[in-house]
């Protein structure tokens, strides 16, 4: 039983989103294109999603009055960032359809629970140890070094993690991270990184986009390549199946992204663990799926609307090869202004800016997607844009 927006009935169906960032903005825009009203809950006076939504409830995520207002307005509620406090989703979920639910978000928020879930699903993860006490720190196997120490909670874009190559460095790093709960992961020889986005409905049906190949710079996604042949075909099916089993086991409803490592073929790690390792998941649309706005007949945000409202889920079809370039605040620093007149003269360029008023280093301000008739064409235009942007 889908909740379609009811044009002409004199009543408006409103969809809500927890969080006002760019992902919320693109959700709001997809919902509005289908005739919904939207409400955003975000503490900031000005936020990318709040700026374009019919309603903006300016309150903290755990504020009972704010949550009550959101429920009053909305027929169903979703989230746009994984650090929405799970208790807020519990409150909302008691009265309204909320997707994804508190339990799934709570697992994705915590690397310890997340890794345990992956292990439960039988998908390979990097060898790791949980470090919550001095005793666990002392008991770490030498084989996990060199490794990466990651805080269990609140890490993103490479923040909250330190690389360590000896036990002494590990101990110092755990102190530097204030002895909070962490996981230590063995450093693996990466060949590449990819991600898979699925959308799963209330009835358990699940559709997916093809795996995207992702290049990071300084821990932040820089480029996504989305076209056939972007990665070894033997691993495509494996990555999609792993992502679906992760979503199914969570009884997940909504859009889910799982990030993977592709290991160097000839490495010892690849021989013992296999070539494909699951890294982490995001309980929401993902930066690596922004190309779907311009290159697919249904975007990841369209599917977020459809899963939330129980409307039909169709397997999305990609109608063009695509390359996405992230636009970070660095491009605007010191009053600089990117040469849009030249960039937009390139065929197949789609510019998306998130309406952020202040640029800072590493801040995601927008993205550019290139579509075209062939992979070669898309690569050439994306490369030309990258040169123009320096
Ligand atoms: P974040 O939440 O910041 O995205 P990730 O766990 O995805 O954190 O780590 C950020 C990046 O660090 C990854 O995209 C990858 O490039 C690198 N990385 C993380 N874990 C490992 C590992 N075990 N071995 C090698 N590289 C890693
Ligand atoms: Mg990551």
Automatic annotation (TrEMBL):
Pfam families for the chain: ATP-grasp, PurK_C, RS_preATP-grasp-like
Record-linked SUPFAM superfamilies: Glutathione synthetase ATP-binding domain-like (SSF56059), PreATP-grasp domain (SSF52440), Rudiment single hybrid motif (SSF51246)
Ligase listed as a keyword: yes
PROSITE patterns: ATP_GRASP
Keywords from the UniProt entry: ATP-binding, Ligase, Lyase, Nucleotide-binding, Purine biosynthesis
Subunit structure: Homodimer.
Protein name per Swiss-Prot or TrEMBL: N5-carboxyaminoimidazole ribonucleotide synthase
């Amino acid at each position: 039983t889908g909740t379609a927006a009811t044009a002409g009935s004199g009543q408006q169906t409103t969809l809500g989103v927890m969080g006002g960032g760019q992902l919320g903005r693109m959700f709001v825009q997809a919902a509005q294109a289908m005739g919904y009203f939207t409400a955003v809950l975000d503490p900031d006076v000005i936020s990318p999603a709040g700026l374009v939504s019919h309603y903006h409830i300016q309150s903290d995520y755990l504020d009972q009055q704010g949550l009550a207002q959101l429920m009053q307005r909305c027929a169903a509620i979703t989230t746009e960032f994984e650090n929405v406090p799970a208790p807020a989703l519990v409150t909302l979920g008691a009265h309204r359809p909320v997707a994804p639910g508190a339990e799934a978000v709570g697992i994705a928020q915590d690397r310890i629970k997340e890794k345990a879930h992956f292990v439960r699903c039988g998908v390979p993860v990097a060898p790791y140890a949980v470090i919550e006490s001095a005793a666990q720190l002392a008991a770490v196997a030498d084989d996990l070094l060199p490794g990466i120490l990651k805080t269990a909670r609140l890490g993103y874009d490479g923040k909250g993690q330190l690389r360590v190559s000896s036990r002494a460095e590990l101990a110092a790093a755990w102190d530097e991270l204030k002895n909070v709960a962490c996981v230590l992961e063995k450093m693996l020889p990466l060949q590449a990184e990819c991600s898979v986005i699925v959308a799963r409905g209330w009835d358990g049906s699940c559709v997916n986009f093809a795996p995207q190949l992702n290049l990071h710079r300084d821990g932040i996604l820089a480029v996504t390549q989305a076209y056939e042949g972007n990665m070894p075909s033997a691993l495509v099916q494996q990555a999609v199946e792993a992502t679906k089993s992760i979503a199914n086991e969570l009884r997940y409803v909504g859009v889910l992204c799982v990030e993977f490592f592709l290991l160097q073929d000839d490495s010892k790690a690849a021989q013992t663990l296999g070539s494909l390792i699951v890294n982490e998941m995001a309980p929401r649309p993902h930066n690596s799926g922004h190309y779907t706005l311009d290159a697919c007949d249904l975007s990841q945000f369209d599917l977020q609307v459809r899963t939330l409202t129980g409307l039909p889920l169709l397997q999305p079809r990609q109608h063009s090869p695509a390359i996405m370039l992230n636009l970070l605040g660095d491009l605007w620093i010191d009053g600089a202004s990117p040469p849009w007149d030249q960039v937009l003269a390139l065929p197949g360029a789609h510019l998306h800016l998130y309406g952020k008023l202040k640029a800072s280093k590493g801040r995601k301000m927008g993205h550019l997607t290139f579509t075209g008739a062939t992979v070669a064409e898309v690569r050439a235009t994306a490369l030309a844009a990258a040169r123009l942007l320096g």
